[in-house]
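[User] Could I get a sequence and structure tokens?

[Assistant]
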Amino acid sequence: MKNVTLLALDTATEACSVALLRGGEKIHLEQLAQREHTKHILPMVDQVLAQAGITLNQVDALAFGRGPGSFTGVRIGAGIAQGLAFGANLPVIPISNLAAMAHAAYVQYQAETVLSAIDARMNEVYFAQWQAQKVRSDFGTFLHWQPVIEEQVCNPQNVLEQLARQEYSGAVLVGTGWAAYPQLAEANLGKTTDITLPSALYMLDLALPQWFAAGQVISPLEIEPIYLRNEVTWKKLPGRE
């Protein structure tokens, strides 16, 4: 694994981040860059690569935050990832932003049950419940985040209704969604954290097992941003249920 070089980037929320895994070591940069992602993301990529003393052509694969998040942010991340991957002929590894925050909770708090919620505006959140599972392979033991409640966009009341039917004792809360709406903030659903936005740093650990697993990487042509809200709206159209 020390010979693997992975580059990750994320612009799906207010955060803008880049991270590199090389020689078993990680380098990362992140900053808040609301509405200025396009100004910062490529210089941050250049800075991380320069710090490692490599070029993009020496990277094995490119991971990116495929959403959910803001429409503009997700589109920017997908577009930048596609352009970089095409230019350097790299395979691509899409990473869930909600899962990336769950993994941050594991790294920082040893959490194995995580509730992720990003404020989606319009009285909705991007939400999922995750359970950590250790998976052994020929390349080592990796952490897999199994969705107990699948990624979705819904209102706060629907979050509470779904959690009422699930076991989530000892849960850790990540994301901006919990503090954004009073009914969630007051529900005492689990341990609150300062993990409010996703980071490319935690996408590296999620990308690594996908790099080793056959069929888990895609070509730049196959990149698809995940908006969730678009999918829900489409399903509600007459005749599209």
Helices lie at 37-52, 71-88, 97-109, 156-163, 177-180, 182-185, 200-212, 229-236. The chain has a mean pLDDT of 93.
